[in-house]
Hints:
Elements: E1 53-57, H1 60-66, E2 79-82, H2 89-106, E3 114-116, E4 127-133, H3 138-142, E5 149-152, E6 155-158, H4 164-176, E7 197-203, E8 211-217, H5 222-233, E9 243-247, E10 250-254, E11 261-265, H6 268-278, H7 281-312
Parallel strand pairs: 2-3, 2-4, 4-8
Antiparallel strand pairs: 1-11, 5-6, 7-8, 7-9, 9-10
Helix pairs in contact: 2-5
Amino acid sequence: MLPTANMRPFGNTMLINFNFVPKDSRPDHQRSADEVSGEILRQSFLNITGLAHRARMPNLELFANAGFPFTRKADLGETVVIMPDSPTTAEITLLLDLMSHCGTQTGYPVLRVEISDSGAVMRRDRDYLILGGTSDQPALGALSSYLPVTLSEDGVKMSTKPGFLATVAAIRDQLLAGKWRLTTPQQLSNEDGIPDLLIEGIESPFFPCRSIVTIAIHSDSAVDEFASVFSERSQSSDIAHSVSLMRHGKFTSYNVPTAQYHVGSIAPNPLMRLWLAENFWVLYGAVILLSLLLAIYARDYLSLLAAARLRER
């Protein structure tokens, strides 16, 4: 079992020690050098195929750390990037910066990524990265009814206020993350100025378990600053949760209530354990129900014993 709670989502290093133990118990000073050394053959390999992969989304920290979920395919073979119909130089620069970031994380060039305009028809076998300015990317407007947060010329705006169930879900997530000082979902505002850029992740409203990440630019001048800030903060926790704003050269992330979904596959037994961990109230309900059933059975059984003893008298 790996201590995943203490690990970064990406960027961890796994060290493996090979110990060559002699067969007999003679001390080392009585052995030759050949007896206490070994060699790993060059044709040897470490087989880590078949491991379960499952991530809870949306999670912009995974996107910042490793370009996930687009880098599930090293060549971005299941990714479509939607650009404005007439992209500016800054928007093309942003595209190239992000593709370079993804290639850096996978160690492989992004050979199969698809570039489309705002008229693209979404498909069930693709994840979508939508880039563009608030004024020249129609796809952002088309998705505005599905996005919890939108960025316009007037600033950032939440489409809906968190309800009671969303607040309860956010508190549950904090408890599962080990944060015992509970806070309600954060509210976004323009008090510190209009954000220069907005990154947001949601599940595709058209196809389950498919992701959409939007990067909305308030002005082209923010792109140069984004390139340096993103590369610097991509391996930190500044970019996280479902919404991240860049303002004055700094990212601030918000756990805005939005629909949770999962990407990847896992065996039924571990899946059941994970589901019970996320929905621990089911265990309480099951224990109470079984206790009531056991109490009813015990009462009836004791009644039968009492009746049998009375008949014997």
